[in-house]
């Protein structure tokens, strides 16, 4: 009895150790990526995608409101980039894509500027 209990505990320790090390390995290596407006997309198309992202899309557009950190530069491309990124970071794990009818693109250059922070989550 005692011996099999020891074995179970040893096995549990092994599993825990394995889980801990595999979690550690994932962390430092993930590549940060952001979703931004494609420079080629016309403003009216971006505006539509922006309205969708901040409305039904469920992006958090607080920071592009007047007086917030990402309000400036106040133009459709920058605001759309913020909204696309917010949407993508929030929903990519559930299958949300950085697409917006081809108005968006993925980049590995951090679009953050001044006090405007673009988040990136694994
Ligand atoms: C939206 O973003 C702002 C600023 O990052 C944060 O304070 C707020 O809690 C967020 N709102 C939601 C609903 O996540
Ligand atoms: C924005 O900030 C300015 C000065 O910092 C202030 O006068 C104005 O009331 C603010 N507007 C809003 C909408 O909070």
Automatic annotation (TrEMBL):
Sequence ranges assigned to domain X8 in this UniProt record: 33-118
Record flagged with keyword Glycoprotein: yes
UniProt signal peptide: 1-25
Record's keyword annotation contains Signal: yes
Pfam families to which the protein is assigned, alphabetical: X8
Keyword annotations from UniProtKB, A to Z: Cell membrane, Disulfide bond, Glycoprotein, GPI-anchor, Lipoprotein, Membrane, Signal
Name of protein: X8 domain-containing protein
Organism: Oryza punctata
Lineage, opening ranks: Eukaryota, Viridiplantae, Streptophyta, Embryophyta, Tracheophyta
């Amino acid at each position: 009895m005692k011996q099999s209990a020891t074995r179970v505990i040893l096995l549990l320790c092994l599993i825990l150790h394995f889980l801990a090390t595999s979690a550690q390995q994932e962390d430092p290596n993930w590549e940060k990526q952001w979703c931004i407006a494609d420079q080629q997309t016309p403003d009216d198309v971006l505006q539509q995608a922006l309205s969708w992202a901040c409305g039904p899309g469920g992006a958090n557009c607080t920071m592009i409101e007047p007086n917030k950190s990402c309000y400036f530069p106040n133009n459709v491309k920058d605001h759309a980039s913020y909204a696309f990124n917010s949407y993508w970071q929030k929903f990519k794990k559930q299958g949300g894509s950085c697409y917006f009818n081809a108005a968006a693109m993925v980049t590995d250059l951090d679009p953050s500027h001044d006090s405007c922070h673009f988040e990136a989550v694994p």
